[in-house]
Each structure stands twice: as structure tokens, then as C-alpha cells.
Amino acid sequence: MLRLLSVNFRGLADHKTPLNLNFSTSSGMAKSKFEYVRNFELDDTCLRNCYIVVRLDGRNFHKFSEQHNFMKPNDNRALGLMSRSARSVMEELEDITIAYGQSDEFSFVFKRSTTWFKRRASKLMTHVTSQFSSSFVYYWKEYFGEQPLLYPPSFDGRVVLYPSNRNLRDYLSWRQADCHINNLYNTTFWTLVQKGGLTKIQAEERLSGTQAADKNEILFSEFSINYNDESPMHKKGTTLIWEKVNETTTKWIKKQDEGETEMNVTRIRKQVTSHSSDIIGDQFWEEHPDILESDQC
């Protein structure tokens, strides 16, 4: 039943009739005749025993980076902001076991046993996207200082399921291989422009049809740049995982006949840590066996 609240606003010379504000409870709305529209919603529950990957990509980030004067080929401020935003997502949704990012994208892996949002794809995707986007804006000043954010960024998301550990590792390997390919091209391209004096069109023509070995040779023979010495974050991207760390705090303990005594207390807690490691080989996974769940369901 609807409750009626009457409010009489004084001082309104031409309106002496009380203003009625109608409030309805959620239970009252649920029993309304309009409830049938819920039948139009599609079931988007993710298949059980599968890893749920939510991948975000920046929309029109080429334009966004130009208008905000991102450094080329890599802007550590922007990469740091992306990682900080991703960490915010993981801290909000602790069932994300690993996240991998490079350039303007980040992939978030929910463990296969997660029950967050009843495994609804739309809920998971929208929550990750909104948390990431709002964090990007919130932490902007922390990384870009007084440089203004001209307009809010936009990210789109997708949900993909991977049924086995091998499938998931291959997916993450694909994204890291993509990071290497793109970074090698961009490093060579911008070196030709910034140090070689070529125009962007000339640099594109110079690199057309070249292989990785050709790009490495251009960097080394013409500019004395050894690509292997480039930043691991630029070459391998950023991997975020949960790890146990020791946290030491100082507390004052009251002792009988001794007053208060200062004492260091150490506890173990989980926190999100950042790595720029090779995740294609086995070593990373052997060092962090808790990331993957058993394929035996």
C-alpha cells in the first residue's frame, strides 16, 4: 500500500495547495502489474567451473592520448594510472586472482569458483568497468599533477570464459605477446621520428613489411639502442596478483606495574602486488601456484 506524505510549503503566494509526495516500498513495486517486464531480461549467468575474464579497452584512446600530451612511445604516468585503477578494481572484487595490462587495456581474471553477482556477465562487466573508469578519473591528479583532465575517458568491456588452466594461460600469453609486438613497433617508429628526423608517414613506410629482427637491427645499428635494455614494464606489461606480505605496526601494551610498553607487532595480510614478469613461460606460475585452481572439478 502506498503511503501519502503531505508537505505544506509556506511562502508560496500562488500555491496554497499541499504538495503530495508519493513513496512506494520495493515490495509494493515488486507486486505491481508491471513486473512482467522482467521476463524480457536474458539469462547471462556464466558457465560454472570456468575462469571469467573481463577485458577493458580504452575507447578512442589514440585521440585521448594526443589531447592530453602523452609521451611517446610510452608514458609512465599513464601506465601507472592504469595500474592504480586496476588495483582499485582488485581491492573491490577480491575474487579477481590476477590482472594483466598493457597500453590502454586491462584483463581481470575471476577465479573459476567465484559466485560474485551470481556469476552474471553483465553485472561483472559493468562493475569492473565503472570501478576502473571512476578510479582513472579519481587518481588522475596523483599521476599527472596539475595537468588538467580535459574530459572523462571511456572504456568498453567484454566477458570471455576459459574452461581450463591452459586456455587461461594461453589467453594471458597472447596479450603479453601482443604487448611485445606493439611496443617493439612503437619504440622503433617513434625513434625514427624523434631521433631519425622522419615524418610519421615516412616512418610507417620504413617499417612496412619488417620483422622483429629488422626492427631490432634498426634500433641497434642506427641509434645504438639495445631493445633488450628497454623497461620490462614497456616490453612485458603489468601483472597484478594477490600476495601475502608481512606488515609491522607499533602498539602500546599495558603491563602490570610497568605502565605502557612499546611493542612491534607483525601480521600477515594479503595485498595486490605488481610485476613486470614473463608470464608466457612456466617460472612465473611455479612461483605463484595459488593463482590457478585445479582443473579437476
TrEMBL record:
Catalytic activity: a 5'-end ribonucleotide-tRNA(His) + GTP + ATP + H2O = a 5'-end phospho-guanosine-ribonucleotide-tRNA(His) + AMP + 2 diphosphate + H(+)
Enzyme Commission number: 2.7.7.79
Binding site for Mg(2+) 1: D57, G58, D104
Protein residues bound to Mg(2+) 2: D57, D104
The tRNAHis guanylyltransferase catalytic domain, residue ranges: 34-163
GO term, biological process aspect, one: tRNA modification
Comment on bound cofactor: Binds 2 magnesium ions per subunit.
Binding site for GTP: D57, G58, R59, N60, F61, H62, S103, D104
Keywords (A to Z) from UniProt: GTP-binding, Magnesium, Metal-binding, Nucleotide-binding, Nucleotidyltransferase, Transferase, tRNA processing
MF terms in GO: GTP binding; magnesium ion binding; tRNA guanylyltransferase activity
Highest taxon above the source species: Eukaryota
Domain Thg1 C-terminal: 166-280
Enzyme class at the top of the EC tree: transferase
Family matches, as Pfam families: Thg1 (PF04446), Thg1C (PF14413)
Known cofactor(s): Mg(2+)
Protein family according to the UniProt entry: Belongs to the tRNA(His) guanylyltransferase family.
Subunit details: Homotetramer. Interacts with MFN1 and MFN2; functions as a guanyl-nucleotide exchange factor/GEF for MFN2 and also probably MFN1.
Purpose: Adds a GMP to the 5'-end of tRNA(His) after transcription and RNase P cleavage. This step is essential for proper recognition of the tRNA and for the fidelity of protein synthesis. Also functions as a guanyl-nucleotide exchange factor/GEF for the MFN1 and MFN2 mitofusins thereby regulating mitochondrial fusion. By regulating both mitochondrial dynamics and bioenergetic function, it contributes to cell survival following oxidative stress.
Protein name, entry field: tRNA(His) guanylyltransferase
Taxonomic placement: Eukaryota, Metazoa, Chordata, Craniata, Vertebrata
Gene: LOC113098246
